[in-house]
From TrEMBL:
Component of the eukaryotic translation initiation factor 3 (eIF-3) complex. PANTHER family: EUKARYOTIC TRANSLATION INITIATION FACTOR 3 (PTHR13242), EUKARYOTIC TRANSLATION INITIATION FACTOR 3 SUBUNIT L (PTHR13242:SF0). GO terms for molecular function: translation initiation factor activity. It is found in: Cytoplasm. The chain crosses the membrane at residues 245-266, 286-308. GO terms for cellular component: eukaryotic 43S preinitiation complex; eukaryotic 48S preinitiation complex; eukaryotic translation initiation factor 3 complex. This is Eukaryotic translation initiation factor 3 subunit L. Keywords: Cytoplasm, Initiation factor, Membrane, Protein biosynthesis, Transmembrane, Transmembrane helix. GO terms for biological process: formation of cytoplasmic translation initiation complex. InterPro entries: eIF3l (IPR019382). Belongs to the eIF-3 subunit L family. Component of the eukaryotic translation initiation factor 3 (eIF-3) complex, which is involved in protein synthesis of a specialized repertoire of mRNAs and, together with other initiation factors, stimulates binding of mRNA and methionyl-tRNAi to the 40S ribosome. The eIF-3 complex specifically targets and initiates translation of a subset of mRNAs involved in cell proliferation.
Amino acid sequence: MAGANDGPMSWRRGLAEETGMGAGDERGGGAQDPKVAAALEELSRMEEEPKQFLLYFRARFREHAVEEMHTLYEDNFVKISERYYKSSAWPSAAAVSYLVDHDEPFLLLYKELTFRHMYTLYGKSQPSIREQANAWGNYCDLFGAFLNGDMVGLELPAAWLWDMVDEFIYQFEIWCQYRAALKEKSEEEIAVLRENDQIWNVNDVLQYLHALVNKSNICPWMLNDHQPIGSSDPKSKDFDLSSLAVYRYIGFFSIVGLLRINCLIGDYRLALMVLQSLDFNPSTSLFTHVTACHFSVYYFMGFAHMMLRRYEDAGRVFGTALLHVGRIKQSHVRSYQYEQVNKRVDQMLALLAICITFQPQYVDESTMSLLKDKFGDIKSLRTGEESTVMGLFTYASPKFVTPAPPNYDVIDDYHMDAANLQQKMFMAEIKQQLILPEIRSYLSLYTSIEVKKLADLMEIEEEMFRSHLLSLKHKSYSARADISGENPMIQGTDVKPTSELGFYINKNVVHVGDAKVETRFGEFFVKQIERLNQMSRIQIPRDVFHGAKGNLATR
């Protein structure tokens, strides 16, 4: 990873050439105003290296140098934060404004960075009400600039735009958790919370995300084969904002944000509905441009499938994402998103283990190897205790939130209510499901067997065992996605059998039959043909070919 002084072009070196500012130069005036004087005093205490960094960053921002901005954002900002602001906040935007000629768009982006940095300083604690209110106000201004068209003509790295939306929802989570923990708050703090329900209000959060999606025109752009519906000329009456990369990305990432929020509040059907227009082709979809976004899409989509009891679809979603891990492992190891992506991968592995337990299905060998390395033999889960599966669910599930304000008249902690409700619902499913894999394994050994005999083998009373058989039959049918559809990850509402094992009861005898009528060889052959086509496109140097031919001739 490049250091603070390195990169495709050193920002230190370029600064002196382009701005002419050296050590000791200051900007500003009007120090008679106390606020201005305080801002200039804060600026004067700022170290020279962060000053030069911000000036150079702003120059690249104004020149639309996206690739260099990406390096400055992802690498240099982190390095300087570690060096100068490891335990303190960056200077205020009021002070920096005198350094960057009061550049409002740049200051909005600077404040977004500094608020995000501020949240990292607290670790497991939480910012104050005032700090969280200021962060909310800055996001309102920032997203308002997008909605008012003030970002037309500007360009930003895709990773930064993703982090904006991702951090926006993260800070919403923090607020919901903070507001619901009342026991340790003073009467003054509770009074402030009671009077400020508009801060991080869930309706406003959702409205901003929906407004960004609509303003960007991203859905028509995707449905129109990645082409804008209107004109790409900003002066035209039918100007289409989807012709601008910055609006395409912010709109697309807002769709992913809606997916995440709906999962956090437990509305899993709506979570999948917002993905209807997404393109899941890995060669064209925008989420592949940012690794953290890529895994977030599959994580929340797979989790929504799992909570809707569509374990086969969830397993396929998780398997697709985990198969991608091996392809990017080497290139991603140096990314600032490395830890975040690794956590998502571990969570998806845990959820995939649950899905396999409840619904046996084919898993790629490389993914199965990851599962065994992380959790050992998956078969042990099928005979394990409820606490084992529940532990995996608690570790791998998102941080659920209660979007509504708590009852401020009853002083208690409500921040775990949403998580407890989801765990309770999942626990009810676990109790129904845990015995089913064992029944399924016994049925696979017979073509016909008496109900009483099978109940005796499992040491369960016959009447109770009949209810388990009916439960197995009921849960062997689920809504499944059509893998041949345009959007194979989320489409499909037809209820179909999910198990290869079929059975029926006639005169107290269970008759077992294989529900799988044909074996699918097509997918295997298609993959092999595709690999051959890729290999045939590889250009082999002529000298290598002749060298190999000569070696063969001498044998």
